[in-house]
Amino acid sequence: MTKDQLRAFLFRGLLFESEAGIFQRAGIQIGASETAVEESLLAQSLAPFGVQRRNAALEMSRLYALIYCFENEIRDFIRERLEENEGENWISNIPGKILQHAESRRTIALKDSWLEGQKTDILGFADFGQLGQIIVAKWDCFKDVIPSQHWLSQRMDEIEKARHFIAHNRQLLPSEFARLYMYISDWNRVIGL
């Protein structure tokens, strides 16, 4: 292919993309639906399992997504508040046992794991329960947002129990779903999400 042919090809592609954008903004689907493709891939991967197990997995996947978002939002909240109040070296001011635990887990992940996911965020290696301990230990940085240490501990303890069930693939009851949604909704309201 010559340079002129390549330019013409790329130009036609750009024109198509800009025209496709007009149709998409009008609600007309162009090309394959990303959602449909994802649903098809999920259906294929779950097909070997029974209907009840698939339905339970899909129901629990909502809770996993909720816990994932919640836990990582807390990590970001802690990071932002401590950096704002204590500067760039905030990490050295978290409780020593928690920092030591997180650094140990990160070292193992860097050395021994074939997994290539996120390994730089030290808070990502702190246990869920330790996140609440960090907030309590650095209470002056959080007391203007979180109502009380009791409020924090109660919610974090209950959410952690549910988190263990979810992480170990145990089914929760609908009432437990509701309680989990309520606790996370309380948190989101308090910190302004």
3D structure, described in words:
With 193 residues, the chain is mainly alpha-helical. α3 packs parallel to α5 (128-137), α5 (128-137) packs antiparallel against α6 (149-167) and α6 (149-167) crosses α7 (174-191). Helix content is 70%, strand content 0%. The protein has seven helices and no strands. The chain starts with a helix and ends with a helix.
Number of strands: 0
Main sheet properties: none
Overall radius of gyration: 23 Å
Order of helices and strands: HHHHHHH
What is the helix tally? 7
* Strand percent estimate: under 5%
The level of helicity is over 70%
Q: List low-pLDDT spans.
A: none
Structural class call reads mainly alpha
Mean pLDDT: 84
How far do the termini sit from each other? 52 Å
Shape from CA axes? Answer: extended
Outline the fold blueprint.
Elements: H1 3-25, H2 34-46, H3 51-86, H4 96-112, H5 128-137, H6 149-167, H7 174-191
Helix pairs in contact: 3-5, 3-6, 5-6, 6-7
Give the structure's gist in a few sentences.
By secondary structure, the chain is mostly helical. The protein has helices at 3-25, 34-46, 51-86, 96-112, 128-137, 149-167, 174-191. It is extended, with a radius of gyration of 23 Å.
